Amino acid sequence: MAVQTVSNTDNATTAAGSAASDAGTVDLGPAAALSCRECGERFELGPIFACQSCFGPLEVAYDLPAGDPEDLKKRIAAGPDNIWRYAPLLPVPADVASKPNINPGFTKLVKADNLARELGVTGGLYVKDDSGNPTHSFKDRVVAIAVEAARAFGFTTLSCSSTGNLAGAVGAAAARAGFRSCVFIPHDLEQGKVVMAAIYGGELVGIEGNYDDVNRFCSELIGDPLGEGWGFVNVNLRPYYGEGSKTLAYEICEQLGWVLPDQLVIPVASGSQLTKIDKGLKELIALGLVEDKPYKIFGAQAEGCSPVSVAFKAGHDVVRPQKPNTIAKSLAIGNPADGPYVLDIARRTGGAVEDVNDEQVVDAIKLLARTEGIFAETAGGVTVGVTRKLIEAGLLDPALTTVVLNTGDGLKTLDAVAPTTGPTATIPPSLDAFRAAGLAR
Amino acid sequence: MAVQTVSNTDNATTAAGSAASDAGTVDLGPAAALSCRECGERFELGPIFACQSCFGPLEVAYDLPAGDPEDLKKRIAAGPDNIWRYAPLLPVPADVASKPNINPGFTKLVKADNLARELGVTGGLYVKDDSGNPTHSFKDRVVAIAVEAARAFGFTTLSCSSTGNLAGAVGAAAARAGFRSCVFIPHDLEQGKVVMAAIYGGELVGIEGNYDDVNRFCSELIGDPLGEGWGFVNVNLRPYYGEGSKTLAYEICEQLGWVLPDQLVIPVASGSQLTKIDKGLKELIALGLVEDKPYKIFGAQAEGCSPVSVAFKAGHDVVRPQKPNTIAKSLAIGNPADGPYVLDIARRTGGAVEDVNDEQVVDAIKLLARTEGIFAETAGGVTVGVTRKLIEAGLLDPALTTVVLNTGDGLKTLDAVAPTTGPTATIPPSLDAFRAAGLAR
User: Fold this and answer.
1) What's a Gene Ontology MF term here (chains A, B) (predicted)?
2) Domain A109-136+245-420 class?
3) Are A353 and A342 in contact (CB under 8 A)?
4) Chain-chain contact of B372 with A196 (C-beta, under 8 angstroms)
C-alpha cells in the first residue's frame, strides 16, 4: 500500500491544522480510498496521484451516505451557502465549514432568457456563473478542497504553477486558511496578473522561462527534499483538488430543483472539470437525489487549442497534442491529461466536443454581456460560442434544458475584448453635440 | 402634488415593462410616498428628487408590514438568495424576483478572525464583502432598485454619469432587464474602465471634459426634452436608488442571526450609503426583527478627499468642499450631498468619521488580502485602514462586534497596488537557484 509519508509532523500544529502522519487517522469524511481510473487498484488516502501499478490517474472513492434522499436534501439545504453544504459527498471532514477556508460556490444559476431568445433556445437556457466565486473563477472550488486535503496530510505550504486564475485562488485560500503559499509563474507575465497572484502576500516566484519550464521545475521540486511538506494543489493533491468540480454538478441540479439538466456545455482545458461534473451527476443519480434520465455533455474548446475537439470530430480515441495559440489562455492546455475521458463521456452521453475561433470567442463574450449583463472570461466566450455553433449544427437540441458554464471573469481578460470595445461616440459637453450624434431617443 | 408626468407611454410595452403614466397605478410595493428629509413634506411616488417647497432631498416613505416579526423572518428566509428576499421592505413590487434584473446581494459576511488577531479585535470582526456582487461592487444593489423604479415609471433608457463602478452596474442591469442604456464618462478614462463600461453593449458616450463637465452635461440633459423617458439612476431615480444600500443593513443583521452589530465601519463618498444603512437598521428595530440596542456608526474617508472627516473632527455641522486627490477614486466626491447627515449619525450613535492617507490605504488592502484572502478595491482599503486607526485611537472598541464594509473589487483598482506588489524572487528554473533564493522551508 502506498501512502507517501509526510515528514514535517514537527510543524503539525500550525494554523494550517494538525498533521496526520499516520494515514490511518486521516479524516476526509466520506472519502474511503484513492482508486486508479485505469486498473481500479485502490490505495489508502494520501498525497499521491498516480497508480503504483499502471501509472493511471487516481481519483477519490467514497463511502457515500445511505438512507432517504429526502433527508439528505434537507441536510444539504440546511448547510451553508457554499460548497460545504455538499460535505457529505466530498473528501472533507464533516466539520469542514468551521475551518478557515475561502468558502467558494453556490454561485448564481442565471436563467438566461434574453440569450435564449438570441440563440433560439426554447427549452430553458441557464448560465452557471462562477465569476461570483471569491477570486472570480471556478478554481476556488478545486483549491478549497485541496486545502482540506493539505490540512489532513499536515502540509504547511501550498503551491502550484500557474499563468493566471489558479495563482490567485491558491494565494487567497492559503492566506485565509493559515498556510504559507509559494506559487511559481513565468517571469514575464503581464503586470495585472502578477498583482493578482502577489496581492495575498504569499511567496511568488518568477521562473526565467516559459510555462513548460515552470512545470518542469515544479516536477523536480516535488521529487526533491526541498519540496517536503509542500502540497502542490494540482499535482500531489490532484485527486482531491479535482473533486471540487463535482460541486458544479451538485449546485446546478439543486438550483434546478433537484433535476438533471438535459444538456451541459463545459469548457475543456485539461478535461478534468468535465469528467468530474459527469462523476457528480452520476453520484446524484446513485444517491437518488435526482431522477435518472439521459443527459448530454458537450465539451467546448478554442480553435487555437482544440486537441480534444479535433480528436472527437475525427473519431479518434487518442488526443494528439497541440501547441496552443488562442486568446482563451485559461483553456490553453495543448496536451490535456483527461482528453480521452472527455471523448468517452461526450460519446457515451450523445454529446459532442466543438471549438470556436478567437473572433467567435470575442463575439460570444459580447453576446453574453449585452443579453444577460454577465461579463465572462474568454473561457465563457468559448462555451457560449460553442453553444451557438452546436445549435446551428443541430447537435444541441434547443428544445431541451441547457446549462452553459462561465468559469471565470471578464475583468481578468480585458485584453481580449479591449481592441473592439469602446465608446459609441465622443462629443463635447453640449446638447447640440449630443443631438448631432443621433443618440437621443 | 408633484409627480413629473412621464411622456413616453407610447413605448410602454417594451421589454422594460409596462408604463404607469398615471402615478396612482405605480406599484412599488410598500413604498407609500416620497418625503422630504428636511421639511417632511410628502409627495406622490414619481421620478422626482428634490422637495418642491424647500429643495431638500426626498426619500422613500413606507407602509411597512405589520405583524409577527417571526413570520416576516420566515418569509425573508424563504425568499431568493439576493436582495429581493427583502422585497417587503423595499420600493419594489411584490413579484420583483420574477422580473429580469441583475439580482445582487446576499454577499458573504466573512468572519475575519485572522484580521481580528492583527488588529487586536476580540469581540468578533466581520467583513461584509460586496465584491461578490454581479459587477463586483455595491453599486449593483442601488442600480437594481433604480431599475424597478424606472420600470414602474415607464422609462426606457437608463443613464448615469460615472467614472467607474456605476457605469458597469448600469450597463449590466440595463442589458439584463431589457432597457436601453446610455452612460456618460469623461473621454480620457483608462482603457480598462472604458471596456468595463462598454462591454454590456449599451451606448457609452465620452464627454470631452472632466467629471464635473460630464455632470453638468447630464443636468442639462435631464431638463431638456432630449432626456424625456430617461431614468438617471442617481438623479431623477435617486430616492429609490439610495434605498438599495439599506439591503446591506438587512443582510448584515440576518447573517449575524438577526442581531445588530455593535459597530459598523462604512465608506463615505456622497454619504448616501452610510445614511441608508442607518435607516435600514432603524427599520429592523421598528419591525421587531432585531432587538433594540445601541450601535455605533463610523464613517471612513481617504485623506485626499476627507471633507466629512475634517468637519467631524473640527466639530462642524457644515461640510466644506474639497478638491479630491486620492487613489480611492470611488470615494472621491469633494462636495458630498449627504455629508451633514453622516455627521449627525456618527455623533448621534457615538461613532466617528476618520480618514487615512493613500499609503495607509494600500497597506490596508494588502493586510486584508494576506489575512482573509479578500482583494479589496481602494474603498475597502479605506475602511480597513480607518478601522485600524480608530482602534489605535481608542474610538472603536475592540471588545465589541464590528462589521467593516468592502464595497468593491481589487481587480478594478489594480493600479493602486501594482507599484508595490510583485514577485518575491525571480530565478532560473533550477533547484540550486531556488535553494539560493532562501524560499525553501
Assistant:
1) threonine synthase activity
2) alpha beta
3) yes
4) no
